[in-house]
Amino acid sequence: MRVVISLEYDGSPYWGWQRQSTRMGIQPVVEKALSLVADEPVQVFCAGRTDKGVHATTQVIHFNAEKVRSERAWVMGANAYLPKSIRVHWAREVSSDFHARFSAMRRRYCYILQVSLIPPAILEPYVSWRYGQAEDLDEIAIVKACESLLGQQDFSSFRAADCQAKTPIRTIHVCRFSRQNNLFILDIEADGFLHHMVRNIMGVLIEIGLGKKPAKWIDEVLGARDRRAASKTAVPNGLYLTHITYPAHFALPIVLRRPLFLR
Fold first, then answer.
1. Angstrom distance (rounded) from CA 261 to CA 110
2. Which residue in 238, 40, 5 sits closest to 27, CA to CA?
């Protein structure tokens, strides 16, 4: 049987999703738990590989299993073996043509920046922080800059140097910027993302919000098609994978899930 599972995890204790030889990734922790439930070795495939310190409210994985287990058994069994930083929300049996990565049509991320005079304590691993007052950030300018990111474009200026994607062309369907007290939230959805793309976009938006660059600067950065034209990469701890869109015929119960401390 092929099983698809939705995961939530706190990425701060891990060095990203992938299995690594010397550092702890999320993938081997999940595979170990599922292997105990399956009573056989399990290899999982994810919708999107998150970097060190990046979180997920909705990560989707799939795996094959020889032995039959109920959907409830996969959920309850896996959660019994997983650490508190990782949780399974649901499991479904799917057809063999489903693939967590290649069947995905869109992916959505949320980036959270806190602007305050005092750095956060409880939320320290879960938001990016910048010294100042919330009024220091020009929300209107950032919203205007976000409009330039919509549609199909070459995002070479926002890809990491080690990005292995075959093409820098991506289509952004949603790019919204909002404020909740002293938290600033970027919601962005695309058919796919390049390595560090969201964090590099956020770095540029912060520069614009602080008035160091005009809103139209983002058009210059896009047109340059050169990573050196943009600004620094924003830190990872403010980034969340929040939604994956799949074809309707798979009938997966995926809903948009933002971090619980957001309205």
1. 13
2. 5
Closest by CA to 92, choosing from 108, 70, 76, 114, is 70
Instruction: Compute the CA torsion angle 155, 160, 166, 171 (nearest 10 deg).
Output: -30
| Amino acid identity, position 243 | H
Q: What is the CATH number of the domain that holds 70?
A: 3.30.70.580
Q: What mean pLDDT, rounded, does the chain reach?
A: 96
Cβ-Cβ contacts under 8 Å for 94 (sequence gap 6 or more)? 2, 3, 4, 62, 250, 252
Per-residue pLDDT reduced to its tens digit, 153-196: 999 999 998 898 999 999 999 999 999 999 999 999 999 999 99
- Provide the CATH number for the domain around residue 226: 3.30.70.660
Q: Comparing C-alpha atoms, which of 263, 259, 260, 198 is closest to residue 56?
A: 259
User: In terms of residue numbers, what domain contains 118?
Assistant: 106-241
173's enclosing H/E stretch is strand 169-180
Q: CA separation (Å) from 151 to 60, 177, 245? A: 25, 16, 17
Which of the residues are catalytic? Answer: 51
Give the C-alpha separation, 230 to 100, whole Å: 32
